[in-house]
Write a structure and sequence with these properties.
- The complex is a heterodimer.
- In chain A, about 30% of the residues lie in helices and about 20% in strands.
- Chain A is α+β, with helices and mostly antiparallel strands.
- Chain A folds into 3 domains: about 15-45, no CATH class; about 55-225 and about 240-605 and about 810-860, Aminohydrolase, N-terminal nucleophile (Ntn) domain (Glutamine Phosphoribosylpyrophosphate, subunit 1, domain 1), CATH 3.60.20; about 605-640 and about 640-750, Penicillin amidase (Acylase) alpha subunit, N-terminal domain.
- The longest helix of chain A has 28 residues, at about 85-115.
- Chain B is mainly α.
- Classes of the chains: A alpha+beta, B mainly alpha.
- β1 of chain A pairs antiparallel with β1 of chain B, so a sheet runs across the interface.
Chain lengths: ~850, ~130
Amino acid sequence: MQIAVKRKRGIASLAGLVVAIVIISIPLGPLPPLSGFLSPNNGIWHAQLPPYATGVQYLNITQNGSSASVVIYRESDGFIGIASDHNWSLYYEQGYLQAEYRLEQLEFLKLASIGDLSSLIGSGGLPSDNFARQIEDLQVAWQEYKSLPKSSYTYMALNEFVMGINHYISGLSPSNYPILFKILSYTPTAWNITDVFALQQIFLWENSAGGTTPLNFNYALQKMNSTVVKAFYPAYPAGIQHPIVPESLNPSVYNFTGNIGNLSLYSPSYNYSSAVTTSTLNSVREFPGFQTSTSGVPSDQVLKSLNLQNFPFHDLGSNNWAVNGNKTGSSGALVANDPHLSTTVPSIWIGFQLVSPGQNVIGVTFPGFPGIILGHNQAVGWGATNGQVQQTYFYAETANSSNPWQYYMNGTWHKFSVINESVPVSGGSPESLAVERAANGVVIQTSPATIAMDWTGLNPTDEIQCFLNIDRAGSVLQFKDNISESFKVAIQNWAVADSHGNIGIFPFGDYPVIEKGNPRGILPGTGPYNWVGFIPQNREPYLYDPSNGFVFSSNQITVSSNYPYYIGWDYESGFRADESYTVLNSTGSYDLAKMQEMQLNVHDFSTNVFLGPLIKALQDAGMSGTPVFSTLSSWNGNFTLNSTAATFYYFWLSQYLRDVFGPYMKKYGINSSEGFNSSSFFLGSDATYHGPLVEDLMNWTMNYPGVQWFNDPVTGQTRNSSTVMIQAFGETESYLNSTYGSISSTWAWGNIHKRQLTSFFGVNSFNTQELPSAGDSNTLDASYGLISSFGPSWRQVVNMSDPLNGMGIYPGGVSENPSSQYYNNTFIPWNNGVYYLLIPYTDTSLPAQFLYMYNGGTSP
Amino acid sequence: MKVNRQIIAILQIPASFVLSVYVFWIVLAVSAGVLGLYCGGRKLNSLLSGVYSAIGVVLAVFVFDSGNGISQASLFSSAAGIPGGIGFPILLTILIAFFLGLLAYLLGSSFELGGSSGTANEKPEKSQ
C-alpha cells in the first residue's frame, strides 16, 4: 500500500491540530485546561455528586479485624445522626460524612491553616499563607500532635476522623470532584492529625480577642492628646455595664492582689513615632479567608484569586444565657446560645448527633473538627460567646543594627529563631518567607521597627480534647473541669445548664500576666514587660449557681472594675448585654418558648439611652411637628420589618457618632488608611464591631450632656449633646429623603435591611437571595450591617429537665453543592425564626439508638 | 463521494461518543484522522468530520447525564459571571470537538492511501 503525502495540507493541518491541542491543554487566564475541564467523562459534564437522601442507612465497618455497626440518620434540617456500637467507628464515620458533603470546605480550610492556600488559588492567597506561617500554625500543630498520647481518647478520635476523610477522598474519582476543584484543577490530598490541629490553631486565632487593639491604641496614644485618649478610650468601659461575673455574685475571685495596680493604662510604655504604621495594622488585621466582595464578573479574582477579606470564623458577637431557680419556677435549668459569626453557604457549621457507648450528643461542629463544639447531651447543655479577653500582646524588639538576626533582652543579645519558609504559589514561583520568633512572640514587622506579637496560641494546647470531653460531660461541674483543664486559648464565656438544675458561666483560659507597662499598647521587648505567667485558675472569674438565678453574656465586660488583674478592655458596646440583663432580671417563668422569644428579640437597647434625649432635644428646638418626630416619639425601639422609625434611628445614631467624633479624627489626622471608617477603634462601620466610642457617647448623652467633647475641635464651635443630635437629625432626614424619598413605607426597615448567606468561597453567584430581616447589630437577634452576612450562626435553646425537646437551627444546610436542595434550605426558616426539634424523636422512623440514654432508647 | 460521507457519519459519531464516554474525548482526533486517511476528500468531508465529532461529544454529554453535569456546567458559568447557564460551556465543548474533528480529518486525508489524488467529485490537488 502506498501513501501519498500532500505536504502543504498535511503541515498546515498538523500545525493547526497541535496548536488546538496545546491551547486546550494549558490554563487560559482564569480558566483551567479545557481538555480536562470540559471532558464529558471526567470534567464538569460528568459528575456523580454525593446524594443526600433523608432517612436511615445501616452500615458495617471493618477495620484491623474489628467490626462495628453504624446507623446513619440523615435529616432535612442540616443534621446527620450517627450511632455506632464503637467509638472509633463513630468518629470515622463523622470524618467520612464531613468529607462527603463538605470536601471543598475541608480542603480550603486545611490549606489556609497550613499556609498553602496560594498553591490552590494563586498569589491572592499569600496574605493568608504568610500570616498562617508567621504564627507558626503548622509548627505548633506538630508539637500538639507530638505531645498527644497515642493511647488517648483524643488520639483515637482524631485518627479515626482523618481516616474517614481519607477513605472518602481515596474513593473519589476526578470526574466526581466538586465544581471548584475542577475549576481550580485541584486534587484533594490526604489528611493527617496535624492538619486538624493546624485548623484548630486558626480557629483559636480567629476567636482570640485582642487582635490588633494594642496597635490601634498605640496609634491613638501617639496621635491624640493624652486627655482625649483618657476620655475616648477609658481602661474600664464607660456607661451602663453589666459584667458577666460581677463582684457581688462571686467575691471570691476578687480577693487577691493582682497586677493591675502596677500597670500604666494610659501612658505609652514604648514611644516610637513610626513603630505603628499602616502596614503594621494591616499585617495583623483579621486573618484573611474566603469571603469576597467582588461582583460576579468573569475575572481572575473570582476563579483564581478568590479575594480574601474575612475569615468566616471571626467572632463579631454572640449571646448565651442560662436560667434556673427563681427564673424557671421549677427545679430545672435552661440554656440558650447564638454565636454570631459569618453566615455563609455552606455554613461554617455542620450539624451532627453522635451516639456511641457512653455518649449521645447533638449540636454543631466546624468542618474539620471531630465531635460537637456547641450543643447538648442528655445531662448538660452549653453555649459559648467570645470572652473578649486580650490574648495578644505586642512588643517592640531592640534589633541589633549590626546583626539583624539578633534582639536585645534582659541585658544580652539573643538570636531570633528563624524558620525559612517557601510558600508554593499556583501559577507562579514559590515565595520565600523568613519567620522570626523572639522569646516574647513572633515577628510580624521588621521595618521601620521590629514588632513581635505574643499570643497564647503560640504554645501547644489541645482544645479539641476539650470538645470531646464536654460532649460526654455529666454535670455543670464536670463541664467546668473540662474547660479548666484544656480550653486555654480563645477564651469563651461558656454558659452551661445541667439536668440537675445547675447553671454556670466559665470564661476560663490563659489570661496573660505582666508586671509593668501598658498592655493596651506596644510594650518594650527588652524583657521586664514579658509575660510572667497566667492568672491562676482559682482566681479566674466564673459563676456557678448564682443567687439571682441566671448567668448571661453578650461579649460585654467580664468583671467588675475592681478585679485585681488586667484582662483587656475592648469589649462589645454592651447594648445586647443590657437587653439580656433587663429581660432576665425583670421576668421569670422561663420555658423553651420564652427562651426562643428572647433569642429572637429585636429591641435595640440603645434606644433606651438615646431616643428619649433626642425627642426632648427636638421638642425643645420646636421640631416636634414633623412626621419623622411623630414616628420616633411613638416608637418602642423594636427593629421590626415594618418600622420606619427603626430606619431613621439606625442612620441617625451612626450620624450622631460621626458628628461627635469625626472632627476629632480630622483634627488628629486619622484617615481611612489608619482605620477611620474601617476599624471600630476609630469609628468603624456598624457591620464591623462596636468599639468604645459608642459607649462614650452613651455615657456622655446620659450623664454629661454638656461635656466638652461635644464641641467641634476643628471649627471651635461650642456644642452639647442636644445640638449635635439635632444636627445629626437634619443630616439623616436629608439623606433618607434624597435616597428613599419622603417618609413612607419605603423607609420600612425590612426594605432596607436584609440578610444574605454569602458564599464561603467568595463566589458571589453562589450567594443566596437577600431576605428582608428584622433586628440590627444591637439587638439580641443580631444582624450586622444593612446587607447582613453576620449573625446568629447557630441558635439553640434547651430545657435540661427535658433535653429531648431541645431546639435549634443553623442557616444553610448540609451540602456545599449549590445545586443541592440542601445547600441553603434552612435559610428562610432561620430568617423567619423557626426552630427545629434537634432529636426528631416524634419521627417513628428514627432508630431507637438515637434515643440512647433517654427514655425509650437502646444501646447503639 | 456519498459513500465516504455516510461512512464518516456512521463511524465518527459513535467513535466520538464512545471515546468521550470511555476513553478521553480528545482522542476523537485519532478516529477523525484515521477516517481522513481512509476516506480522503477535503473541505466538505473535513467539515462533516468536525460536525459529527461534535455530535458524538454532545451526545456523550447529555445521554448519560444524571443532571449533575448540567448543573455543574451551569454553576461554572455562574461562578465565572457568564450569563446563559450551560450555553458558554456547551458552545466551547462543541467548538473544540468540531475543530479537533476537522483538523484531524484534514491531517489524515493529506496521507492518501494508494497514492490516489482525491475523491471523484473534488478537484485533485497538485502533488508537492
